[in-house]
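Can anyone check this?
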Amino acid sequence: MTWVPEVMVDDRPLTAGDSTANLEVGATLSTAILLPKNLNCMAELHKYENFALMMQHSVLAIQHAQSYVVKTKMTRKKLARKTKEAAKLLSSLNNAEANNRALLDQAEVAKAAENLAKEKAKLAEDKAEVTRPGLAAAKAKAADLEAKLQEALDSKEAEVNAADEKTFEKGQAAVRDQYKQQVNLACNRGYYLG
């Protein structure tokens, strides 16, 4: 009869992907191939293995501690870098906040100027409303004066035209008389044209 023990590693069956580099797998394989009568002999060897395992665990603990120290240093460096980045971001945020405050102040000044301009425009409009009736009266008066002026210009033009015609007729009569006199003198005959 053949005895084939089931090979277990930490309460699970040994798989093809397991490696003997893992101490537990190596220990499991070394004990799995021993027969029960050889186990007593192995028990004596376990004292040394236990010491070796204890030493290995100590080395692993030291390596783990060293790894923890290295990770701690790296974490501190990262933290310092992140702190600097956060300080820069905070500074940028403060600058942006100051710029926003400045823009808000400018907006308030612009709003105050706009309100002042609206008030002035309202005052000007109110004054215009007050002066509109006077403006209508002034326009009516100006139209009346313009009509009278046009009438006066028309009558003066008629008078000027009449005076021009009279003056022209007198000038023509004077020119005729002078012409007649010149002709009479030139002819010496004593006849008068007339």
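Reply from J.R.: I decoded it. The two ends are 188 Å apart (CA to CA).
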